[in-house]
Amino acid sequence: MSLANHLHLTASVLEIEVLRYTPSGIPAINCRLEHASEMVEAGQLRQVKAVMKSVAFGAVAEQLARQDIGSSWNFKGFVATPRGAKHVVFHIQEFAQE
Q: Where do the structural domains in the chain lie, given as residue ranges?
């Protein structure tokens, strides 16, 4: 059986930290993304808002570092829980204009 962990999220850049480098020299950047939409749940229309801690590495991190706060994108990646944490982090693997 194959398990999937894929997240596609349309969101805007809420906060972005300074580009940093891992001990092995890979570019990395932390950011927070904000999503807002209307979804149907249990037959009812619902306003949905979410802020997600996110991280990107390599060329994606370098590209994300150049984006403006408030700019909206379609993000693709996966979620994982960092060691010792109680929350998930969205690992951005690619993003493009919405």
A: 7-97
Instruction: Enter the tokens of residue 98.
Output: 């919405």
Q: Is there a contact between 34 and 11 (Cβ–Cβ < 8 Å)?
A: yes
Strands 44-57 and 89-97, by their bridges, are parallel
Amino acid at 13: V
Largest CA distance in the chain: 49
CATH 2.40.50.140 for the 7-97 domain, yes or no = yes
How do the pLDDT tens digits run along the chain, 98 residues long?
Answer: 678 999 999 999 999 999 999 999 999 999 999 999 999 999 999 999 999 999 999 999 999 999 999 999 999 999 999 999 899 999 999 999 97
Instruction: Specify the pTM.
Output: 0.91
CA dihedral 65, 70, 72, 76 (to 10 degrees): 50
Residue in the block written with tokens 């150049």 = 66
